[in-house]
Specification:
Order of helices and strands: EHHHEHHEHEEHEEHEHEHHEEEHH
Helix content: 25-40%
Largest sheet: 7 strands, mixed
Shape: globular
Low-confidence stretches: none
Number of strands: 12
Radius of gyration: 22 Å
Number of helices: 13
Strand content: 15-25%
């Protein structure tokens, strides 16, 4: 660290779906009473052991059975809330990087609008065999055999503001599917509609009973204005993205990423390399347990993440900063299968922090403001309130 005034590298690890209690506006998101961490604690009781999270202050924010608060911590902790209008991975990461969203994305409840669908079929040079709101399983069951026989494309829309392009692996190459996704993405970007994702999926098998889907590509909506990441790149700083984070910032990363274990392997490899800048890693595999309302699976995976974080912390250099947070809640005991509007933890450690620092209530954008402040770029983008000086106060 140069005279105690900046970090060379900042690592932001986003634990997908790690909520710590319903926000003040939870009633607008059908999330009253949601508490992902609290209800996990009730389910597991003393079996939920999170020693690394506890040492970073999670028990001080939200004590549960098996994880109490600690008086002596070498960490900073607080809680954050979002001002964006939705509960998606994209919206949370954009807001952390200085771009809050104030309008909800569109959903094609009747399929892709006819004019766009017709023009897309013409450009893709393939007939569209389906075009409606349906899940992948239904699409393969109802249209899979026809697709395999004809080579047309299945188009399925989703309530999560997504469009899926689906084809059998024998009827289209990986490269052709990618090109078709790019065509549709560009058409939607030039339309009045805001659709979060265009996804490409191939399936295998020779009959409905054994059709097996594999998602290959995701082409997300690109930020409409500069983010913290753009500011850093413009000034020559490194930006490393791992896991779901590779999808959200228009940096031409469109391949589907691996599981949590692979993400942590990449993170541990990266932390051993020399660079100046930031790394954002979203650990997203845990989300599936929240959507499936499976508290046992959720808590078990959270304990694995806790163990992997220990390895990351052990590799940190003196001028590194680690920020661990969430993006929304996904209470596995809550009715339905949607994300839940919750506060998320803000947990920070660095080798030089020798005190217990409470950061209080914060907004998502404070992470971006702190990053810009660290690299003396605070005038580049009017985002949030930096907590950098509060961290440095613990060094004196």
């Amino acid at each position: 660290m140069q005279n105690g005034q900046s970090y060379q590298r900042i690592f932001v690890v986003i634990i997908d779906s790690l909520g710590i209690g319903a926000t003040a506006d939870a009633n607008h998101f059908e999330s009253l009473g949601a508490d992902t961490l609290g209800h996990l604690g009730e389910h597991f009781r003393v079996r939920l052991q999170l020693p690394t999270f506890q040492k970073m202050g999670l028990g001080n924010l939200h004590p549960i059975m098996g994880m109490s608060s600690l008086e002596k911590l070498h960490a900073a902790y607080g809680q954050m809330s979002s001002i964006s209008t939705g509960l998606s991975n994209r919206e949370s990461q954009w807001e952390m990087m200085g771009l809050a969203t104030t309008a909800e994305p569109d959903v094609f409840i009747d399929g892709v609008p006819l004019k766009i669908a017709t023009n897309f079929a013409r450009k893709a040079k393939r007939p569209l065999l389906s075009n409606s709101l349906m899940n992948i399983r239904t699409a393969l069951k109802d249209y899979g055999l026809e697709q395999l026989a004809t080579g047309g494309l299945l188009v399925a829309t989703a309530s999560s503001s997504s469009v899926w392009l689906i084809a059998h692996e024998q009827t289209i190459s990986v490269g052709e599917l990618k090109e078709d996704c790019q065509i549709l993405r560009k058409m939607l970007d030039n339309s009045p509609y805001t659709i979060e994702n265009v996804n490409g999926l191939l399936f295998s098998g020779n009959q409905a009973a054994n059709f097996y889907p594999q998602e290959l590509y995701r082409f997300p909506l690109a930020p409409a204005s500069p983010t913290v990441i753009d500011c850093l790149l413009e000034e020559g700083y490194a930006v490393k993205l791992i896991g779901k984070s590779t999808q959200f910032f228009g940096l031409d990363h469109n391949e589907i990423t691996g599981n949590n274990q692979e993400s942590f392997v990449q993170l541990q490899e990266l932390i051993e390399k020399e660079f100046t800048g930031i790394c954002i890693a979203e650990v997203g595999e845990i989300e599936q347990f929240g959507k499936a309302r499976n508290p046992e699976g959720f808590g078990t995976e959270l304990m694995r993440i806790d163990h992997e974080l220990t390895k990351v912390i052990d590799k940190m250099q003196d001028d590194d900063l680690l920020i661990v947070t969430g993006n929304f809640g996904n209470d596995p005991t809550y009715p339905g299968e949607k994300h839940t509007r919750e506060y998320v933890p803000l947990l920070i450690t660095a080798p030089q922090i020798k005190q217990n620092i409470s950061l209080g209530g914060r907004s998502f954008s404070d992470i971006g403001a702190t990053i810009l402040d660290n690299y003396d770029l605070g005038d580049k983008l009017p985002v949030g309130n930096s907590f950098l000086r509060k961290l440095f106060s613990a060094y004196r």
